[in-house]
Amino acid sequence: MSAVALLPVLAARPAAAQGGTASAASLSAQDAELARRYAPLVRLERDEEYFPSDVESFLSNTHVETHREGDNPNRQFRVSNQPLGCDSCTEPAFLSGWPDRATLDQVPAYAEIVHRTDNGSATDITDINYWMFYPYNRGKRVCMTVFIANRCLGGLYSTFGHHVGDWEHVTLRLVDNEPHQVSMSQHNSGQTVAYGREIAVDGTQPLVYAAWGSHGLYPAPGDHTYLRLPNGHSLVDRTSNGPLWDTRKALKVFSWQPAGSYTGDLSWLNYTGRWGNPKSGCAVVEAVSGECMLNAGPEGPNLKEVFGPRTQPLDNAPDRSGGSVAE
């Protein structure tokens, strides 16, 4: 293992982020206006403890280390400068994200304009990926024996699936610059609905709900089962009408560019490692669940399939092209 020198932990939050257009040579005024017009409203869960944050705060509280991951002996990880305390501990203060619910609108989201292509040719599809960053993802409490009649035999529970760093996104698909679909990230998959018909819209802004701890995104409040385990237990995301985050207020807009070509305050988009600590605490729970108490940090936006320009279906979209669902 190798690591750069640790930076001092910066407990204080940076000055409020200012809304603006990040520098990108190909970004047009029309694209910037479209991104702001449809920027989602995000309702966090009312009991949320791990809030969104700007990327810069996370970078200042982490450093790059290399660790083996599978066949790669030199996988990069952005590791917290201060130890977590344990596999399910969150001792570094920055992991809680933005500290003031009343000023959530000062937290930036990052809007990526992608003009879709088909075999290198232009299409009539434009996607706007609204990337949202959280310094920490809280996992789930899961029955480790048999779950039956709403009870865990022996009362043996464990928590797993925590990870440092959490990227979520909403994709707004436009056809001929008209909104058609909204796709929301949910764990390893997502959900796509028709804009203006299957999701609430305030003016032009779709309203989405971020689940407690995991921040998976849904079109309505309530309990959302996303995985049924072999022992009868289920993993459930909970959403509610908690604090409102208007991503339009401090939105940073940029256009897709080839990997490695971002500069200035967008240079973090060139990073190809994991956004968080390596996995740990795997001995018991990984054999049962396929996950560890502390999972490895996620990959960043630039390694997600939706980031690049190739035309592709949205997650679980009923219409694979995106052209007819909202008609």
Quick structural gist:
The chain has 327 residues and is mainly beta.
Indicate the proportion of strand residues: 35-45%
- Can you give the mean pLDDT? 88
Count of DSSP strands? 21
Structural class: mainly beta
Q: Order of helices and strands, N to C?
A: EEHEHEEEEEEEEEEEEEEEEEEH
How are the strands ordered across the major sheet? Answer: 2-21-6-7-12-13-14
The gross shape turns out to be globular
Rg, rounded, reads 20 Å
Q: Largest sheet, if any?
A: 7 strands, mixed
**Total of helices:** 3
Poorly predicted spans: 1-24, 320-327
Give the % helix.
Answer: under 10%
Report how far the terminal alpha carbons are from each other: 54 Å
What oligomeric state do these chains adopt?
A: single chain
Report on the structure:
This protein is mostly beta strands and about 325 residues long. The protein has three helices and 21 strands. The strands form six sheets. The chain has a seven-stranded mixed sheet with strand order 2-21-6-7-12-13-14, covered by helices on one side. Strands 3, 15, 16, 17 and 20 form a five-stranded mixed sheet that branches. A hairpin with a 2-residue loop joins strand 9 (about 145-150) and strand 10 (about 150). The protein starts with a strand and ends in a 38-residue tail after the last helix.
